[in-house]
Amino acid sequence: MSASKTARTDPMVQPAPRLIIDLAAIRRNYARLQAMAPGARVGAVVKANAYGLGAMQVLPVLADAGCRTFYVAHTAEGREAREALAGRPAEIFVFNGFWPTDLAALREAELFPVINDLHQLHQLRELAPDLPCAIHFDTGMNRLGLGPNATQTLIDNRDWLAGLDVRQMLSHLACSHEAAHPLNARQLERFSRIREAFPDIPASFANSGGTMLGPRYHFDILRPGLALYGGPPSDDLPNPFEAAVRVEAPVLQVRTIAAGDCAGYGAIFTADHEMRIATVATGYADGLLRACGDGGFGRIAGTTVPIIGRISMDLTTLDLSNVTDPVEPGDWVSFLGEDVGAMAETAHTITYEFLVRLGQRFQRVYRDTPDTAD
Length: 374
Ligand SMILES: *Cc1c(COP(=O)(O)O)cnc(C)c1O
Fold this sequence. Notes:
Blueprint: E1 18-22, H1 23-36, E2 41-42, E3 44-45, H2 47-51, H3 55-64, E4 69-72, H4 75-85, E5 91-94, H5 103-109, E6 111-115, H6 118-127, E7 133-136, H7 148-156, E8 166-170, H8 182-197, E9 203-204, H9 208-212, E10 221-222, E11 245-257, E12 262-263, E13 269-270, E14 275-280, E15 297-300, E16 303-308, E17 316-319, E18 332-336, H10 340-346, H11 351-356, E19 363-367
Parallel strand pairs: 1-19, 2-10, 3-4, 4-5, 5-6, 6-7, 7-8, 8-9
Antiparallel strand pairs: 1-11, 11-14, 11-18, 12-13, 14-17, 15-16, 16-17
Helix pairs in contact: 1-3, 3-4
């Protein structure tokens, strides 16, 4: 974040909040992941509109950075991804399984289903054996994929895969954000054992957090989402990724309140000394989660400005005590950016949820500054 103050808006124009999305940061995060795992290919998880940042803008950037493998949750997201890629070569996998009524859509947009159970496998064999697919093994998360019994059945009946075009075998870590969690090693061991049964199928195991766990977790294809967008993938390790999204909200009013005065709905905040406060034009309708009111903060030219009182739908009040410069209507306050993890914590949630809940009302500004040689 730049330390200089963002230029004030035109005083004749009603100021509105905007979302600044840094496409160059996403490109650098992709390159960083590739550098962390030189022996693997780096795919990109772009479900939920690229974690809220905008599939249409984000996917071409990733493809042009060298990404050839994309993952979405729904078939409809896959169609959107194919459209966003505008002819760039890419495999697109759909996590949520093979469902026969999707077959035409899968073929039309050239999407590859991820098989999550043996029933789906048999349906694929019957209806579309030529359609490339992936197989998801559940190695301990107990969420999606072939569980231990189905996995053993498939290992014992490997010929079921004969004639199918299985492009990947994958599994997903439940606890990759906690480096020392014992389930990580247990899932790795199970996945490695399954892999021995299917040595010719490229293997994908690590999400963002898994990438941080070291080369044993990398296999052939990484499957990061959060790290691409700059979120912190690990609770214990420093975040090597660059924030790619921030909110900029304009100040609408500045006032001085006396000791004993309150601010906002419910009068839950009371000043204990005279203080200067600002009201900015963003609120929970924009995804600034109401739960952030306790401990959340924005920044003016890098200086933190704590949120006081309740966040309302369109407005948020801030304590300007840390700011020595004058603050006036039209000045910009930024939120999230590299603080997104801390903000999520104040709201008792995770960066992921914060990103995907960023609102539709923002003006979205996509910046793509060329990389400087360094
Ligand atoms: C969402 C998801 C990912 C990406 O996880 P991040 O923690 O965002 O890197 C990878 N694999 C599967 C199966 C997922 O559902």
